[in-house]
Prior knowledge:
Mean pLDDT of chain C: 85
Helix content of chain C: 55-70%
Shape of chain B: elongated
Largest interface: A-C, 108 and 88 residues
Helix content of chain B: over 70%
Order of helices and strands of chain B: HHHH
Mean pLDDT of chain B: 82
Oligomer: heterotrimer
Shape of chain C: elongated
Low-confidence stretches of chain C: 1-8
Number of strands of chain C: 0
Amino acid sequence: MPNIGLINTVADIGLLAMLAATAVLMMRSQSPLTITILSGIYSLIMCTLFVVLDAVDVAFTEAAVGVGIASILILCVIKHKDEPNLQSAWPSGLSICLGLGVGVLAVLGTADMAMYGDPLAPVHQHLAPRFLGQSPQETGIPNVVTSVLASYRGYDTLGEVVVIFTAGIAVLLLLAGETRADGSGQHKVLTFPAGHSELIANPVLKMVLSRIIPIVILFALYVQFHGDYGPGGGFQAGVIFGAGLITYGLLCGPGKLPGLISEKGVITGMALGVLLYGAVGVSALICGGDFLDYSVLSDSQTAGQHLGIFLIELGVGMTVASTMVSLFISFNRDWG
Amino acid sequence: MMTLIGGGLLCIGACVVLSGAVGLLRLPDFFCRLHGAGVIDTLGAGLVILAMLFLSGSIIIAFKVVMIGVLLFILSPVTSHALARAALQSGLTVRADRTENRQTTGRD
Amino acid sequence: MSVAGDGMAVPGLLNYWVAVGVLVCGLIMVVDSRNMVKKLIGLNLFQSAVFLIFITMGKVSNGSAPILDPAVSTYSNPLPHVLILTAIVVGVATTALGLALVVRIRRAYGTIYEDEIADKPQVEPEIIP
């Protein structure tokens, strides 16, 4: 039997070293393109580190969001002319002094933290034993992260979903296409800039990706509906679903995307997800329970919890997926 | 026995990944470096996945590992191809002269 | 702090220190950079350093991912995972909002470098349709 603890420690230290190196490179680099690629690498290292730290759900989210969506969104914004002459440089002395000051204070602050992996740390004494011990009886769901996210802290998650929805709406408002009063000429024609047309014309990419995208969508649905039993859930599934559609947009040109799913449909999806979430909460009220108390939704407590968690995860997935696609469409409208 | 085979494959895979990483850093120009990345993507990842197949206890996990392997085997050559094609498109040419090539790619 | 044979004591506070280092890198990127996209990525770096601190707090030695299984008895703390999972997705949505502002600034001033904006009039005044 290999020593799991030792392997864990070695992996942790190695990944931390890579993380620090990537962060310093990002700080020094001046080219937006290089920084974007480095931030993708950083996310990948971070995601592996999350797996080492047992946070599989978080790692899943980081992999889909940090490596996939965030990089693509930044790449949509930076342009070739942003590249500076100077590739990398140390920051000015003043900002380094400020950074070091904050860093020293923060390191002094960590003296009060518990050691890595200490099972007696105060964090593990209050809520966690309650969640880990009671969740099987109360919700009947093996994945405690899902049950805490959707049931125990359902109110908090509702807030997060509304934040995502609001951010999506704000981006839509900021980057709205030119709409005429008479309703004609709704949107600009979406075309890639000249350099990107090759990506669309590349037959190998088209051949392979057009067969991979359905698998990605299928995987997103699996993550959505299997989130009760394994890592996954609405947030991850929504991001993966959105990434699948965004890949299609990258492959065929974002102009094709509104043909596949209308922009109105995307915005409706954003709103419907939040509405579904809220409606589950209100129906719990109507059935005689508290807001977002799913136990009253069905005959038995666990059946009610199952139903409620299923529905709100669906709402989360809808909002997140629609928001990601809407962000991609918004950022590419500017290219027209 | 399974553990032994799995562990051995894992070690060989790690060596291949290491050599690919060294190649990625040390090879002179973009297209050669792409070769290093290709070695990591196909042979390195392939061996590691094969090792996991031996180490996975249950049939469901084995099936998932096989799925990852299939996807990786389709996607990594495609990404290598797309990268090389993008490099050619943006004006990076394959040259026989090493020193000149190093200057072209010296920026990264 | 018990030093069990499982290497539990070795990382100690190292995770927090590296997280602080990354946080400082992010802070310097935000303060020092003239490029607004770089500033936003610096903000992301800062944010993810905080994520690392939270997730490290949730780790229990020899614990397993918090998916209940009869064969496992020790689990890591699920609560930080829930907080950070939602924060990551919210983080990308707010980053997108920042990027949208950058796009609008570029449309109005033709540049994403702060010092160039300061001494430049609006090249293309915004027309509200």
